[in-house]
Structures are given as structure tokens and as C-alpha cells.
Design brief:
Layout lengths: L2 E2 L2 E3 L2 E3 L4 E5 L6 E6 L3 H18 L4 H17 L1 H12 L3 H18 L7 E5 L3 E9 L2 E5 L5 H15 L2 E5 L6 H10 L8 E3 L6 H6 L6 E5 L2 H12 L4 E5 L5 E4 L5 H13 L11 E5 H16 L19 H16 L3 E4 L15 E4 L6 H4 L6 E7 L2 H9 L6 E5 L3 H8 L6 E4 L18 E2 L4 H6 L2 E9 L6
Parallel strand pairs: 1-5, 8-9, 8-11, 9-10, 11-12, 13-14, 13-18, 14-17, 16-17, 18-19
Antiparallel strand pairs: 2-3, 4-5, 6-7, 7-21, 12-20, 15-16
Bound molecules: nicotinamide-adenine-dinucleotide (NAD).
The site of nicotinamide-adenine-dinucleotide has 28 residues, from helix 7 and helix 8.
Length: about 475
Amino acid sequence: MITQYKNLINGKMVGTKDVLDVVNPANEEVIGQVPACGAEELNQAVSAARAAFKEWRKKPIEERRQVIHAISATIKENTDELFRLLTSEQGKPHAQAKGEILGASMMAAAQSMFDLDDEINEDTEERLSRTRRVPVGVVGGIVPWNFPVMMAVQKIAPALLSGCTIVLKPSPFTPLTTLRLAELIKDVVPAGVVNIITGEDSLGPLITGHPDIDKITFTGSTATGKKIMEGASKDLKRITLELGGNDASIVLPDANVEKVAEQLFWSSFTNAGQICVAAKRIYIHEDIYDELSAAIAEYAKNVKVGDGAQQGTAVGPVQNKKQYERVLELVQDAKDNGYKFLVGGDHDPDIPGYYVPITILDNPPEDARIVAEEQFGPVMPLMKFSTTEEAISRANASEYGLAGAVWTANPEEGVRVAEQLETGTVWVNEFLHLSPNAPFGGHKQSGFGAEYGKEGLLEFTYPQVITVKKNNVPA
Ligand code: NAD
């Protein structure tokens, strides 16, 4: 029997007549059904969030923090159940799914550590001026399918800490773990403060256009981000957009080939390449190109692609059919253009599941689609460069600006290069690490605003300046 999941609205788990199927990408079987919400259910969720906002915003920040800690603890206590469910809907191997669940618990707690104290602007004999931070109101959170639980939590935690309430919409491809989490936290969060509703993509614009939602926090593609910005402009909703990337790694000639090969591999192929900050283009200095590309290819040959629920699987399927077909299209384009494959290139269309074998391309040209576009899948192009300045300029020749990395035996030179990359995050000799204390956001078309850190929290607030003239009391 297919499990039926419900939505969280006003502290209760509720279903709808219409439902959506959710498919396991490892075998294409339907594993659950979730409510297919429309305007009516959205209105109920927004009304609940609006009503709850009146009291929630007045709670002392310590009380709000305790609720976030309770969410964090609930996630942790239920790790085993949640990570297995996550693998079944998202596809990532069990170890990575467990990492996401534990990471979400940790991030919730870490994001609740900030304070929102008033700031004094002027304290003179004449006047006292202070800035306080007031919550924006009801937040609409819209989440993608690559890290469904982590992304949900990283929107819920700062919203709640700031005093906002939230209506969250998971991706229609990966709503199950978030809805199970909704059920688990419903008794630790006051009714209406967190509402989680599911539906097709068409529910997204209804959220963006809802007159009683004050802010949208969105993670997803740049194309959808632009639609959200347009939709939100009608009533000037506040927006935070975390969007796509075509993240470049630059490997300088002094990098130790043996040390970096495996790390470069995982910087690209973790979560089957479906990470906004995964390395999507790797530029290797010509002095070490042959040796390093051979080492990466050799490492790749021993990595098992398969069902994430099976032991030994290190790379799971692509999460959904649309993305699977897009990745295969990019591979086909590379074939049609005669680009050289170091690893992969063929797949078996008769095996059920959205499996794309690990694929590595050998020095395709800069205008190849696999280089110029965000692949978001287990296909990586390696490119050769001659001078550092050339590599920087090629890395920056993108409309995106999310993240990048520099690999070198000389960290000072790494920082010099990093400072010239036009991205919101740059790692030197590291990859995929995001700190809850540091703002995370994209430059150029990779985003608008930031999440994480104090900066991310402040995006859920308005500054309000109260100025009192001391010697002008009209008594
Ligand atoms: P997507 O934009 O298709 O969908 C994301 C969410 O938006 C889903 O919940 C979807 O239902 C909803 N949506 C779709 N159309 C909408 C509309 N018109 N208005 C409002 N909401 C709408 O993205 P995806 O395919 O789920 O995710 C992959 C993309 O997300 C990649 O480009 C990736 O780089 C990006 N991403 C970015 C980050 C980041 O932090 N910068 C993190 C993860 C993923």
C-alpha cells in the first residue's frame, strides 16, 4: 500500500482530495502520495501563519530559540527513520542522507545562536536613537529537491528566531521527509508558526503572489528565481534568492596530484553532482593536467553508482526524470560534438531508475554546453589552462557567481586567486564547506541576498529606528 502523507496547517496534519505521487528515483516506483494543494489550502496556511504571527513576534527571543532547539533535537532523535526515507525519495546514498539529517539538526541549532539586540545610533544629551529589528511577518519558503530537509530547516530556523511565521513548500519531487518531519515537530511548535504544504510547481507562483505573505525565501534555479522576483515585485515583498551556479575550481601547477584527485572528484560528484556549490568546471594547469586527469579518472572507476539504499553505493541516481533527461542531453551533445570522454558516456536506458554513470570529459572547449551550462548531475568537464590569469578570467566568464575553489601548495597564492573570483564563496584547498556563521549567497545571477550567519537572519527583519528627542518633551 502507498503511504499517504499529510500537510501541517495550523498545528494539524491535514489531507486533500487530490494527491501527487512521489517516486523513488532508484527504481521509479511510487513510494508515497502527498496533498496537491491549491489556493484554498494556501489561504488556510497563510491565515494560520498570520494569526500565529501576532503572538509569536512578541515572545522573548529565548523562548523562540527553545522551540528551534526542540526542532533540532526532534530531527536528531529521529535520524534513522528520516535518513532512510530521504534516500528513498531523493536517491542519495544512506551515508549522505544521514549526513543531511544530522546536518539539518546541527544547522537549526547553530542558526538559532544569534541575538537581535537593539543598536544605539546616538545617545547624547539631545537625543537617544536606536535601531531595533522587527520581524518581516509571514514568510513563504520554497525549497528544491537536492537537499530537501537541510533547505527546509535553514529557512524555518531563522524565520522563527526573527519572530516571523512561515508557510513552507517542499519540491513536489521530494516532499516526504519534510512532511514526516512536520508530523514529528507539530507538537513542539505552536500552532500556525510553521505550516508545510505540498503541491505542483504551480503552487509556487500562488505563494509568491499571495497578498498576505510578506517575504519569500527561495532556493532553486535561476530561471525560477527570476519569476519569483517578478512576482514579488507587485507588492514589494522582501526576497532572498539562492540560485544556480556553474562553480569553477582552479588547480594551480604546484598542487599535489595524489592529494587533490580524490577531493576534486567528490567536490563534483557528491549527491550525484546535484549541489548548487559542487565543482561544475575544473581548470587544471597544463603542467599537471595529464597526470591529474588520469588520477581522477582512475579514482572514478572504483566508485559504485547505484541504489542509495544498497550498501557500497557511493553515487545514487539523478533525482528526477526531467533532470535525468537534461543530464543525458548534455552528454549526448558532448558526443555529437566529438568531445573526448575520460570516463563514462554510455548508459543503459533499460535499467529502471534515473542512473547516469560517472562521466568525465577531457578538455572540451569553453563554449561546450557541458562547460557553459550548469549540469547539476554526475558529469564533469576537466579543462587545461596555461596561466593563472587566464584561468581566473575563464572561471569568471559566467552569468553565475555562486562558489569556486582554488587548489595549491601555496595558500597565500590561493587567497590571491580567490579574491579575484566573482563568487559569494571561495574555498582554498577545501570544498563544499558552509559555515552557519558566514553569509552564504550568490553574486551575479546566482542569487539575491544571503542565508546563514547574522546577515542571513537580518533578512527576516526590518530595521526600525526609534528616535527620542530628550529636551523637547511637550509636557
Ligand atoms: P526549481 O527552480 O525548478 O524549483 C525549486 C522550487 O521552486 C520547487 O519547490 C518548485 O516547485 C518551485 N517552483 C517552480 N516554479 C515556480 C514558480 N514559477 N514560482 C515559485 N516557485 C516555483 O529548482 P530545482 O530544479 O528544484 O533545483 C535545482 C536548482 O536549484 C539548480 O539550479 C541549483 O543550482 C539550484 N540550487 C541552488 C542552491 C543555492 O543555495 N544557491 C541550492 C540548491 C539548489
